[in-house]
User: What shape does this take?
Amino acid sequence: MTTYSPSWPHSDIKQIFPNVFMVTGTNITQFAGSDLQHSRNMIIVRQNGELSLINTVRLTPQGLNALEALGKITNVIRIGAFHGRDDAFYLDRYKATLWALPGMVHENNKTTDIELTEQGQMPFAKCSLFVFETSVHKEGCLLLDQEGGILITCDSIKNWVDADEFFSDESAKLYASQGFFGQATISTVWLDACQVKQTDFERLLKLKFHHLLSAHGEPLLNQAQEKLKETISTIKNW
Assistant: This one.
């Protein structure tokens, strides 16, 4: 029998751009023996009445009603190795198609329906894929050709400006002490785990984008590329 993660508290679904939405929810996990509670985002892209869910977050029944009112849940898209705990819920409930990077292993014995590659098929139009080639764990970004370029990330680039309502007090203090808060940040924990080289981020900066929608943090509007460039310039040990 499939076991799903529970639906923890989350925000309302908010429209960020035309046909691009975000919902922020709770994530409870363990890392290095510590209990952690922080926020995470699901990005929703609507095209021709069909919805693509990126970095899934399981919603409450009320949240699902609001999601279903937006369109037909068609695609589940996984671009980060350390996310995906809620993919199976949406795949089973809505018989959606699972898009993922090659070699990703999914929970609940799910298998990838369509592999995401930079030169391959995309889940919706005006969308391209960037892959971190040097990462030892699968990680990518989606770039939407809209509003001057919208970069959608998982764990690679976060935009936690500060702790929000979905953080526990303990996790908020811990993350602040470790310097996790700021605009267009690149976590040293993620860098250490994935061993990503500077060359990948240099390639990423060659793309054109104005906005960032991350799995973690607020939308970063208008200045995303400039803020990411500033972040990269501060990293000493690649």
